[in-house]
Amino acid sequence: MTILALNCGSSSVKYKFYKSGLHQVLASGEVERIGIDCPDHRTALKLIIERLTQGGKTVLKDLSEIRAVGHRVVHGGEKFKSSVMINDEVLQAIRAVQDLAPLHNPPNIAGIEAAKELLPNIPHIAVFDTAFHQTMPENAFLYAVPYEWYGMYGVRRYGFHGTSHLYVSRRAALFLGKKPAETNLITMHIGNGASIAAIKNGLSIDTSMGLTPLEGAVMGTRCGDIDPAIILFMIEKEGFYAEEIDSILNKKSGLLGITGKYMDRRDIEKAAEAGDKRSQLAIEIEAYRLRKYIGSYSAALGRVDAVVFTAGAGELNWQLREKTLEGLGNIGIKLDKDRNQKAVSREKENLISTDDSPVKILVIPTDEEIVFIEDVLAILEGRYETHVHHTYSFEDPKYKKKTA
Hints:
This protein has 15 helices and 12 strands. It is globular, with a radius of gyration of 21 Å. With 404 residues, it is of the alpha/beta class.
């Protein structure tokens, strides 16, 4: 079965086209600058269809070969605890929580509407970033603010990067020779956006991102955890409007805010090596905050089988991993520096802890799209309840990821 996976952002649409039985990517790409070079998501999707059906790299003879579309939806609120077939009721429920993710859900919705218009006679399925973390207990997901805010407005921790945390946690369990239900992990998705999850017996019990993706670790341009009173303080000092503060905290803070120049860790590493003090400070701050999350989640889990690094920086930035893991031998986390420096890959899974480390340290390249595809396929075949009860093909020791 051939399935199209779509990830619709505010200014881009990323796509991958899969042959599900072979777990193979037949085509992938991105349409950028929506609203500038490309007027809207409908036009972007038409361009994608043209790429798939026309020209020298044609992978489709006819649109009827597309059997289903999987859509990434960033925020599902509390209603969606698993991937679901999209109907009018589901689409309305996604609209109802779009104020919880105003930068993400509106373009997700625009992409769904455009795809349903252009590909009207096939199933469309939503895969939610938040669904994996819906197993968190109340004491982890509620904030110490007036309880009425939760009932009235849904103010609580939701968490994100769910498909990534799901994928690497299942792969880590396999790597360790354990069942997911027997495995305790700290999974660290570190890209431009970053989130950490505490996974107990295969289920998310806590995660660093909150009501929105702004909370948690230091990120490329997002501040992560701060004293909320800073916002009021700066409004008083500078007279900022809400939109200005929102833009500063989401787009001008994090590593960019500290360095004043860079959001890409590669640029920060080069500047730090050349003696730039603020770049050196940014590295120290990011690693320190990540280290604190490892410590707190170790306490929350009680027993940790492995710490898992994934996503762009988690997979490729050995310096950040080394800095993050400094001094954690006292809680059983011992890094093999030589293994760590050699583990720089978007394809290969690596063990980077010492042989005598009680807690294993793994680098596992993520594959969020395969979770999309398998959820879509399982729903179409009527064998899917939730991710909690679902066994994925990538949990099989014989599984091998294939690319175009």
